[in-house]
Every structure is written in structure tokens, then in C-alpha cells.
């Protein structure tokens, strides 16, 4: 039997407080009837003896301390689940906002998910093809991995997110069991419209489930959005055997909502005002990616976050880096040069790629070309640093070769159109052609047997129209 409580003891921001509450539980859903006859919903976020703090999803505007009726439902927040999620657009709390009726639920599930036994996890092996060379070859996305994108204000992370949705596919099969769950948090109306319009124009909306929280929506809903999205992804993966790619943007908006909410509860702030439990809260999201023993589906995550002031040591990217298996870092200097996507190669890595590439997955030479491209581009940075001190004219001939390689690498490899979808074979072949600009003896990360098969200086000269006698000043 449920008990209805009359009146509130306190209202503070998005929170209401009730005293003398019996048998309430943390995360329990609450139904609130206001004096004007409207009904709002909330959840229990704090319990102190018989005093309960309830987070109101729709906000506490115009609520009264005296004539508000509150009923505890006895269950946590649940999301209606069905395969009909695909092709639909929902609010951050899972309500349909695309003008169509609510979906017919085949089941309902707690948005907080179920604890995952680490022993039941399967090590991720196969890869997801994104069609983007800098990701596929150098920071390969492995199925079941969590690989964040570290961006900054004004960088093209929204465009990159759209390109990933349009182009991503699993390596094997025809893609019928591959889908995407896209969650946008704290975005403006024009950005939300851009996402939806881009997916519809590309003809991929039927394999996408969108959860959208706008910047003028309650911050409470923003804290629910990624959990609703991940609950939908787990359902599609483990009950419909689908391989699900979850894209979460922008995690920074989520963390700022968490900070504001924590402050309203009067909690002691941690670093830069974020709650002390930010690490465990982010882990509760990121660790829902993976592959489970006995399941045919998988959940792969790409969280996107904007680093305040491009500071990679900020708490959000810092803690995200601890939890996830690598990162893709967007470089502002490359962006200013007009290179898209501006992926900074040297600070980016995918810790799981070594076990998901090579023969049987991508191509047997993938590891070789990846290692050599990293090494060569690192020497490009050394040559550029030296040139900034002594001038390009004073560089050695081999340093000038590396400067040439760096220019062509950025122009032809990193830079590709927002609609350009490269196969893994095209990406690897382009990598070898770029490496063939350099003298063969400089490629010290590759066996001679592999070089015999792929190194071809004449083909590189012809492909890129290189004049051997041209000086670096003319290349710029």
C-alpha cells in the first residue's frame, strides 16, 4: 500500500525535502501532484533517517510547501524498451519528442543498469570501421571498447559525430545487426536540428535511436540522458543480438549539470567544484560498454567531451582518461590549418587496437604501417621544432624529407572530407604511399620482407606529384 504525503518541509532549487518518510529507498521514483492539478515526477537522491530529498525532473517553479501531494512509487526510474526505439527521437528522460506516439514497451528496465560481473566480460577483438583514416589506421576503434574524443570549444566535434554515425559499420556481415544510440546533452536547438537533419538526409535514421536534452531543458534530465541511452543500447545488444555504437556528446555538459546538482544538495565540492564522486559517476557510465560472455551483441562507446580552455589535465578529461581505453584528441592548430578531422596523432591512442587489427581483422600489415606512421610523424615534430630555431634552410636533407612527409601526411591522410568514406584498404595503401616519400632506410619499424611488398618510392612520387628537387620553402 502506497502512502501519499501532504505538504513539503523545504524547497531548494530542483530539490524538495520531506520529513517523516517511511520505507523510502534511494533512486525511487516519486509522483508529485501540485496545487494547480499538474503532475510532476522526481526521484529520491538523498536519505537522512526519515528525511528524503527528491529531485524534481520538471523543476520546482510554482510549487507550494502546503498543498503539494507526494507519492513514492516503490520502484526506480525505468525506460520503456522495444526494437521500435530505432528511428525514433526521445527526450533526455526517454519520452518521445518526434511527434509520434510513445513506443509499445516489450519490457521496462532500470536506467541505472545491472552490475556486470567482470568475470563475464569478453576481451574485445574485432574492430568497427569508421571510414576515417586517422581513426581506422592509428587509433582503431575496437568493438566493445570505450574510446573518448577530447575536443575543445569551437572544434568540429559535432561534424565528426555526424560522420561517425553516417559511416560507422562493423567489419563482418552486412550491417543489419549494427545500430547506433546517439545521446546529445545540453545542446542548442540548432545543433539538435543539425544532428537529426543530417541523419535523415544520409538515410541512416532507421538505425539510430536519438536521445536529446536541450540546453533549456532541466539539468536533472541531463543527468538521466546517458543512462537512458545506455539502457537502450544494452537492451538492443543483449536481447536483440545487435552491435551497438553509443555516441555521447557532450560529457562536459553532463558533468557541469552534475556539479550544479551537487551544489544544490549542499555537498562538499572537490576539484574545480565538481563533486568528489565524479570519478565513480563517470565510471558508472563508461563501464557499461563491453562484450558479455554468451551474448552475440556488444556495446561500444564514443563519449565526446570539450576540454575547458583546451586543458587535458582538467578533471573531466583527466578522469575520463583513467577509465577509458585510450583517447582521440582533436588538435586546434590542425583545425586552424583547415584540416578536417583535426585529429592530433601523437597524443591520441587506442589501447585495445593491437589485439583487434592485423590478419583476420583488418590486414596483416596494419600494425607495421601504424607504428611507422607514428614514428615518422614524431620525427616531423622534431624537425619542425629545430626549424623554428635555426630556420628551414639550415636543416639536413633528411630533416627536409621529414618536413615534406609531414606536409603531405597532414594534407592527404589526416585531411578528408566530411562525406569521404575510406575503406581500410584505401587507408593502409595511402599510408604506405606516404611512407614511401621517405628513404627506405628511415623506415626502421618495419621488416624488410614487408617493405619489399609495400614500399614503392616511384609510386609515391607519381601519386603526390612530388618534384625531387623542390625545396621546402616551395612546399609550404
From TrEMBL:
Job description of the protein: Produces ATP from ADP in the presence of a proton gradient across the membrane. The V-type beta chain is a regulatory subunit.
Transcription regulation as UniProt keyword: no
Alphabetically ordered keywords of this record: ATP synthesis, Hydrogen ion transport, Ion transport, Transport
Coiled-coil intervals, chain numbering: none
Domain ATPase F1/V1/A1 complex alpha/beta subunit N-terminal stretches: 9-74
SUPFAM superfamilies for the chain: P-loop containing nucleoside triphosphate hydrolases
Gene Ontology MF terms in the entry: ATP binding; proton-transporting ATP synthase activity, rotational mechanism; proton-transporting ATPase activity, rotational mechanism
Protein origin, superkingdom: Bacteria
Record domain ATPase F1/V1/A1 complex alpha/beta subunit nucleotide-binding: where: 131-350
Family to which the UniProt record says this protein belongs: Belongs to the ATPase alpha/beta chains family.
Record keyword Ion transport present: yes
ATP synthase A/B type C-terminal domain segment(s): 355-455
Protein name in the entry: V-type ATP synthase beta chain
A GO BP annotation: vacuolar acidification
